[in-house]
Design brief:
This protein is an alpha/beta fold and 406 residues long. The protein folds into 2 domains: 2-205 and 387-405, Glycogen Phosphorylase B (Rossmann fold, 3-Layer(aba) Sandwich); 227-384, Rossmann fold (3-Layer(aba) Sandwich), CATH 3.40.50.2000. It has 18 helices and 13 strands. The strands form 3 sheets. It has a 6-stranded parallel sheet with strand order 10-9-8-11-12-13, with helices on both faces. Strands 1-4-5-6-7 form a 5-stranded parallel sheet. A two-stranded parallel ribbon has the order 2-3. Helix 12 links the parallel strand 9 and strand 10. The two termini are 21 Å apart.
Length: 406
């Protein structure tokens, strides 16, 4: 199994990969190929030794002479592209290891424009779950600084070119045995709709033990009738939290907004709240551990998810704590699953920013006017998104390929 990022919580992608690995390790012997720094952290983590007994971890990075330009998060895409292409070639030289491998799975979540050469290993190949974020509409980008807008448009333009003309990507689509796709937006961009090798699978999941029905702390003022809206996660441009702040202007004075996290847009969000005179109603709190979120959610009335990110774990984690969620339509897992779960409120996004903000404010009013059965919300999301669900789909895919090859 090849995974660019694996961790016990350092990043969302790593968190997803670890939870999938943890469940697959119960029934399979796994050889994991990941970056060297991930390997060192995993080997030093007692939780990994307990959850993934018998997993053999191989660390692979590009040689320094070929990766001197990589610094932190800069140039992530070209490095990840080369990494995904080259690790199978490196594994070709480890014949003793290859002899024991009967199937190769390439975990690749937000990078469906990055191909794989895993089919060179001569085993059946499972690729995915694949996903990507669609281009953010212009009305949302109007809040962004010009550098963020330019970077976003250039990056998406490069993806569009890759989807259409990258020969390695076309080869990967033809050579792999199963493609796990997160949604119809992936099928459309990769041109794989209708293929028999296509399997629908979101990379989202929730830890039902960690995200539970916590008791809300006693309020300092029992007569306080305020409504608490909350969002927890990185404060990035794609999250659309400026929309949440602007929607607050159209809500009664008892509505408050708590933003938990940090990120590139934090300074601009604070400035927006001050300019709108909402500094007494918008509160910022540094990031907290995932294990602390259930108590925070127990005190809230609604989780705001105005984001355009295709996946995002935060909204299903909130639902698992019995907290309803409000967001927009779009090419996202949130919108795709909105009709099949309780406590998910969606409004249509048009082209006019002011109209969309007002519509979102009305949605928040509607959602907070309903008395929710929090246990029912929790049960609804866990039926679809507990980590055993994607693991079960992947196991079924593995077994179907084994039947074919045998």
């Amino acid at each position: 199994m090849g995974a660019y990022d694996v961790s016990t919580g350092a990043s969302s992608e790593g968190h997803v990969a670890f939870n999938i690995l943890q469940r697959l390790a119960l029934g399979y012997r796994i050889v994991l190929i990941t970056r060297r720094n991930n390997r060192d952290q995993l080997l030093a983590d007692p939780a990994v030794r307990v959850a993934c007994k018998g997993m053999y971890i191989v660390g692979f990075d590009l040689p320094r002479w070929a990766s001197w330009w990589k610094r932190g998060g800069r140039f992530y895409f070209p490095y990840a592209y080369l990494w995904q292409l080259l690790w199978p070639i490196t594994l070709l030289g480890r014949r003793w290891l290859r002899k024991s491998i009967v199937l190769t799975h390439v975990l690749n979540f937000h990078n469906d424009s990055i191909p794989t050469l895993a089919w060179l290993l001569g085993t059946p190949v499972v690729w995915g779950p694949l996903n990507h974020n669609e281009q953010v509409p212009a009305w949302r980008q109007s809040f962004w600084p010009w550098k963020a807008r330019v970077r976003h448009r250039v990056e998406f333009a490069l993806r569009r070119v890759a989807w259409k003309v990258d020969p390695w990507l076309m080869l990967a689509k033809n050579k792999v045995d199963r493609i796990l796709s997160a949604g119809p937006w992936v099928d459309r961009r990769l041109g794989i709709a209708g293929l028999t090798k296509l399997v629908r699978l979101s990379q989202l999941g929730v830890d039902s033990g960690m995200f539970n029905m916590a008791e809300a702390p006693e309020p300092l003022d029992p007569h306080n009738q305020s409504r608490l809206l909350v969002h927890a996660g990185r404060l990035d441009w794609i999250k659309g939290l400026d929309i949440a702040i602007e929607a607050l202007r159209h809500l009664p004075a008892e509505y408050r907004l708590l933003l938990v996290g940090s990120g590139l847009s934090e300074k601009h969000l604070r400035g927006l709240a001050n300019r709108l005179g909402l500094q007494d109603r918008v509160f910022f709190r540094p990031p907290v551990q995932r294990s602390e979120l259930p108590v925070l959610y127990a005190s809230a009335d609604l989780f705001l998810f105005p984001s355009t990110e295709a996946a995002g774990l935060a909204w299903i984690e909130a639902l698992a704590c019995g907290l309803p969620v409000a967001g927009f339509t779009g090419d996202t897992a949130f919108a795709l699953n909105s009709d099949s779960m309780l406590g998910v409120y969606v409004t249509h996004a048009g082209c006019e920013r002011d109209d969309n903000i007002k519509a979102y404010a009305r949605l928040i009013l509607d959602a907070t006017s309903i008395q929710h059965d929090r246990n029912a919300l929790r049960e609804s999301v866990l039926r679809q998104f507990n980590w055993n669900v994607p693991a079960r789909v992947i196991v079924n895919v593995y077994e179907s390929i084994r039947d074919i090859t045998e």
